[in-house]
Backbone:
């Protein structure tokens, strides 16, 4: 592993004091170590800002705070930022040392977090900017609604199959094409089932539209320039560029394009020992939102760009369709990484010249 990749994944800066926290909604276990590894504070307390600041007060000068990246970290990160304390979020899936002992409880976990930070072996997760978190949460609520809508549309289509009915001929994703769909089936129970699906789709469409408008308006104030640049990438529309802005928010924290693609879960990392390969690993490490975004962008890219269809057909000669789509998604991820690190919009001609020559590479 090269130094650039190591510094990205692990926080190695040395400090006089290291504070490890096992954080819960109501309680927290705090462990403070000095540079020699001696335990200075190790106790459980209520999850309260004033109580926490009082406990660390004698060691605040030069202290670094480390906490596992779970759903309760936001307030602690903001508190430390206001107090001038550096905070490191530990990547939950990568912190396997915490779960490797014979016993496991909050005090052991807080000591392990502090010890990992002291040894420079704490794998980092990115801290999302405080101003973007509320918009991020609303945006992430949209994703299950979109998945639910797709499942309902598929159920309507699949319900027609057992009765061997002719194809509907129109896409029921559009509200104008849903009239009379339920009546195509003769059985009243089946009609009722389809009617329920269509009613849920109509209701969810309204909820999703109401949530999308404020997201777009707010995101423009976060980084209008990045949003405009992302819109020039083929296959990336309004909602996908919002997902990318939320998940990436600062592309310079991952300086290598290989790391950008890896964080999108678009490559398989090898497991090897003594020159022998034992398969792959790390399939669940990275941002699932980026995986979905670039996969969706690859499909949308193929709709309106004959050159992209030609590229996919060329890759399919060596790999199956799934690998070919992943290769196209990788290409889009490389393009976005390069686009955000240099000025200027992405042009379709430049895109194909610069990125499609790397087909199938990871």
Residues:
């Amino acid at each position: 592993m090269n130094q650039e990749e190591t510094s990205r994944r692990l926080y190695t800066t040395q400090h006089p004091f290291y504070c490890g926290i096992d954080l819960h909604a109501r309680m927290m276990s705090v462990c403070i170590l000095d540079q020699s590894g001696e335990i200075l504070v190790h106790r459980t307390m209520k999850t309260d800002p004033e109580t926490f600041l009082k406990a660390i007060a004698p060691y605040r000068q030069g202290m670094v705070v480390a906490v596992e990246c779970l759903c309760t970290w936001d307030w602690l990160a903001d508190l430390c930022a206001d107090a001038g304390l550096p905070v490191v979020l530990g990547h939950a899936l990568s912190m396997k040392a915490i779960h490797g002992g014979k016993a496991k409880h909050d005090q052991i976990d807080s000591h392990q977090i502090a010890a990992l930070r002291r040894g420079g072996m704490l794998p980092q997760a990115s801290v999302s900017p405080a101003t973007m978190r509320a918009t991020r949460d609303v945006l992430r609520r949209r994703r299950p609604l979109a998945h639910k809508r797709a499942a309902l549309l598929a159920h309507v289509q699949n319900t027609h199959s057992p009765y061997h009915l002719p194809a509907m001929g129109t896409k029921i994703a559009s509200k104008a094409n849903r009239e009379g769909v339920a009546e195509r089936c003769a059985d009243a129970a089946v009609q009722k089932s389809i009617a329920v699906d269509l009613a849920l789709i109509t209701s969810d469409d309204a909820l999703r539209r109401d949530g999308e408008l404020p997201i777009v308006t707010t995101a423009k104030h976060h980084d209008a320039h990045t949003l405009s640049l992302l819109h020039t990438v083929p296959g990336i529309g309004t909602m996908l560029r919002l997902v990318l802005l939320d998940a990436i928010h600062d592309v310079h924290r991952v300086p290598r394009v290989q790391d950008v693609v890896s964080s999108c879960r678009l490559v398989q990392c090898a497991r090897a020992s003594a020159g022998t390969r034992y398969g792959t690993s790390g399939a669940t490490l990275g941002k699932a939102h980026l995986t979905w975004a670039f996969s969706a962008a690859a499909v949308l890219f193929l709709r309106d760009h004959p050159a992209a269809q030609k590229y996919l057909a060329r890759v399919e000669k060596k790999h199956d369709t799934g690998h070919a789509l992943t290769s196209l998604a990788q290409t889009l991820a490389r393009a976005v990484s390069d686009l955000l690190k240099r000025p200027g919009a992405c042009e379709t001609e430049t895109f194909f010249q610069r990125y499609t020559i790397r087909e199938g590479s990871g």
Q: What stands out?
A: The two ends are 16 Å apart (CA to CA). The beta strands are 17-23, 27-34, 39-46, 63-68, 87-90, 124-125, 269-273, 276-281.
